[in-house]
Write a structure and sequence with these properties.
Layout: H1 2-14, H2 18-36, H3 43-76, H4 84-102
């Protein structure tokens, strides 16, 4: 799992094609959402979320700063307007995941 997060972060820094960037952002947003999903989940869902969290949180810790700066830089800088929704969703998912995992 850590390899997938590392690859996704690397792809975001070099992808110039809009649809490819959107796909990577969608993948990361989904991954973060799986970790922090809605409260009141079933026991099975909680176990799955815990398993994902245990494998993904170390990868986020290793690449979180680079990902955060990349997302913020793209939002504040030259990202095409068609990517802004995907960038914002990924950033919000990441911050929600980190906030919930620290509480």
């Amino acid at each position: 799992m850590a390899g997938l997060v590392s690859l996704s972060v690397a792809c975001l820094s070099c992808v110039t094609e809009r649809d490819s960037a959107r796909a990577v952002l969608s993948f990361l947003s989904t991954l973060f959402s799986m970790m922090s999903g809605p409260r009141g989940r079933s026991t099975q869902s909680n176990c799955n979320a815990t398993a994902v969290s245990q494998s993904v949180l170390p990868a986020i810790a290793a690449h979180g700063e680079q990902l955060l700066f990349g997302l913020m830089g793209a939002l504040l800088g030259g990202a095409p307007s068609t990517l802004r929704d995907s960038l914002t969703e990924c950033l919000a998912s990441m911050l929600q995941t980190l906030t919930l995992s620290s509480s």
